TrEMBL record:
InterPro entries, A to Z: G_patch_dom
Name assigned to this protein: G-patch domain-containing protein
One function term, GO molecular function aspect: nucleic acid binding
Residue ranges of domain G-patch in the record: 1-42
Species of origin: Lithospermum erythrorhizon (Purple gromwell)
Lineage, broadest ranks: Eukaryota, Viridiplantae, Streptophyta, Embryophyta, Tracheophyta
Length: 105
């Protein structure tokens, strides 16, 4: 933010009229995962991370390359998103089809 003109002690805003101090409404804890800021991992997430660390250590010990297993890339957006206010995935996108000229939606 300093690259954009922010100076310590001054408020945010065009004429520095905004608040100059900020209060966090949550406790900042050190994170030992790579999910992102504020993400609270589940027991399943922790289990999968532990399995990956073990596999990576085993590969290093055996001097073989280690590749992170990835889920297959879905060819559709259906079921990947939830609309605001809904609790179930949205399935209203058009399905892609393979036409003679290539991919078509």
């Amino acid at each position: 933010m300093t690259n954009m003109g922010y100076e310590m002690g001054k408020g945010l805003g065009r004429q520095s009229e905004g608040p100059s101090t900020f209060v966090l409404d949550y406790e900042i804890r050190p994170q030992n995962h790579t999910y992102g800021i504020g993400y609270r991992s589940t027991a399943w997430d922790d289990f999968k991370q532990k399995q990956l660390r073990i596999a990576k250590a085993r590969a290093k010990k055996e001097d073989v390359p280690f590749e992170v297993p990835m889920r297959p890339y879905p060819l559709t957006l259906n079921g990947q998103f939830t609309r605001a206010g809904d609790i179930f995935p949205f399935w209203g996108f058009r399905e892609p089809v393979i036409a003679a000229t290539g991919w078509d939606v």
